[in-house]
Queue: 4 jobs
Job 1
Amino acid sequence: MGKNFPFATIVFACGSIIWFMYMMFVYGTTTNSKILYLNGAIYGAEFTIVEWWRLITPLFVHIGLDHLLSNMLLLITVGRVLETLIGSFKFTMLYLLSGVAGNLAVVFYDPNTITAGASSALFGVLGLLATHAIFKISPYITYFGKSSFGIIIINLIYTFVVPGISVAGHIGGFIAGIILGLFITEKNSVK
């Protein structure tokens, strides 16, 4: 493994794929609300701080194959490149903190919906790219952010147009990514 190996991206993708396969093997479905909740999805109306781990586990639970594939495609294409630019530790923090922020947004703003998927974390990645594209914080991330702007816009539109999407989760993750983008720079760069 080289210095720029996207270790975290691969771990997050493999974790999601393995958990999806486990759910299919054991339960035969990944779309039943009770099974989703049993396997780590978050339901805001039932959330208590005792189950703090439910702020993280939904990042690995996906509702159907199309949900898994679309999130893993975005993670592997965009996440892989960003991780090589900022390093595995910063990428892991961005991914997890954005995911937690998105899931907290679900608890407070959409509590009556069962929510799962890596998209809150992925919207954090997009939020960081948008911040760098607009404010030109780090040269390579700024370039990558500008070249990804179409992906950012399409995903934001998709959030509001397609039924069944967790708007609170996406926007919560996106806002977290915007804020973290002000502080996360490329490896070996000084602010």
Job 2
Amino acid sequence: MRFFTKTKKGFTLTELLIAMAVLAIIAAVTVPSMVTITNKKNFTNGLKKATLILKTVTSEIMADNSGTFAWTFTGPNTYANVFGQKMPFIKVCLANLNPGECFANSWKTLQGTNSWVDTNTLDRAILSNGMTIAFRTFSWTCAHVLYTRNGNNPEGCGYLYVDTNGLKGPNVAGRDIFEFVLTKYNGILPSGAPGTASAVVLDRCSTTSVNFMNGQNCGAKVLTEGVMNY
């Protein structure tokens, strides 16, 4: 009597190569997407952390100044001095000195063009947590239209620029760099928030916009929606 046994047949080389090619295609599609999602979550968390720090510090500064920012700063170099009393700076770079040491030497808008402000010309500082910050004075009396309360009361003091991951990349507005507005009575607000001058401009946080200040309003968008969905 003859017995027949089944033999197991392995994959051929061709089949293995095809399987590897398919896996490579899947990885090429999914891995970059997963990295992007992770990066956006990190950027969002960084913005939330920076916002909490800035709101806490500005509230303390205003409490020491009768509840207002007016006349808190009397010159372009006092921003760093006053904030430095409340924030743990590990290094300060005064305006036009030490370019690239306390803030990104250059940064981009959301669509990749050069930023709308040269932060090397501003006071800058590095926080103990690695974040970097730049200060831009507009009005010592906080009477500038960069913020208007109730539609007719100009109460803007100046801008703050924060790089949530310090000197690391990508150094892009709306990703790791965000603009905030200092106000006379309402503390600090992300650009794009109600009352800020840029809030009326709708194309300053879009990957398809060609606005030369694209990315300016992203802080308000992310903090409102809770995610970075652009």
Job 3
Amino acid sequence: MQTKKNNSFSLPDKNRLKIYFLWILGLDVVFVSIYGGMNYLASLQSFHYQVYLVDELKIPFIPFFIYLYLSISFLFIIPLFRLTPDELHRMGRQALLITLTAGLVFYLFPTVSGYQKTDAGIHSFIFKIVYLVDRPHNLFPSLHVAYTTLIITSAVTWTNYKIDLILWIWYLFILSSVLLVHQHHLADIPAGILLAHFIKRLVK
């Protein structure tokens, strides 16, 4: 029997905790394998697609936005306090399929970033860590955007408008951050959004 969606945040019971940690663990394993593997394979290829316009390279680099970019880690906690067990199960399957689908696109359509690494000043240490993990090939579609879209659209209830507004503002900040820290190009964003919505329609 399907349980009713929470209109607000609530402390998770044992069942929700179990479901949440199982799908987070599964997603972590799949993400590391697929994302890391596809980045490695793309680095071995001599040709990469350029999915950006030259004018996009004029987008300013704002190092402070790296913290909004990394706030996706906290966003992943929201479903635990916002979704029912049935919704957590469903979102876990959706997240896994998003990762696998994106991995296939990364393999068939390896891209390259047009941005050059820029001095981030006092934020340089954070960027060095990001660059170690995030090679400039798995760009289209943006998994960062796809995951964010999945979580926000799953967590918004349209009944608690204050919480929904905060979530949508957070969503816009993360989408802006992928551009302003030069981790993605413009085309990567709608591609990530479409991927998330496609999988949500596919897996219900």
Job 4
Amino acid sequence: MPAAMPTGTPAATGTSATTDTSAMASDRNPVSRYGGASWHTGAVRVYLPSTLAAARSVWDSGQVPAGTGFAVTPALREWYAQSESEEELEYAVLHDAARACLRLLDADPVAPRRRLVFVAELADGQVRVRDDLERGAVEIDFPVPWTSVEAIHVDDGDDAEALAAVRAAADQIIEADLGGEDAAFAVDSAEGFELLWFAPQELADLL
């Protein structure tokens, strides 16, 4: 358990991290808990793709490694110009982060076949927009402290159908990226299963 594990940090808007986790389990909606962090407010909500295997080191170290994540960047907001809902934009970003998890699973064949996304709120000056890599992509150049993590999204470990779909998608994500139609269908099938929401202090129960 990381020394910096918070006991009073809000896990998401309107929910204290001291809340009974049995109450949290009754509402696993992935996005609706969040408020409106954006470049307009000076804060950015970043979705950081990971795996359960990598999450073990996050739990031990108390920080999420530097790397590429996803956020509602100006370019992404412009692309979804017809959307008037901030929640829809957050869903789109979570979707992109979940797909990036498949690439991480492909690179680590021994990791459990479950997508996992950390959600952190950072100052906008700490986030470098990389729309040149992918629309909505951002780069974090430093390990994200655990105290900045708001939530975790992960596949339902009890849903055999979802796990089978994620396994198949992870096996075919590279082919899908290269334009393979059958592989793209497998990836789309996995993306039909939503990730569940968990408070940061629930990570130990997921490992």
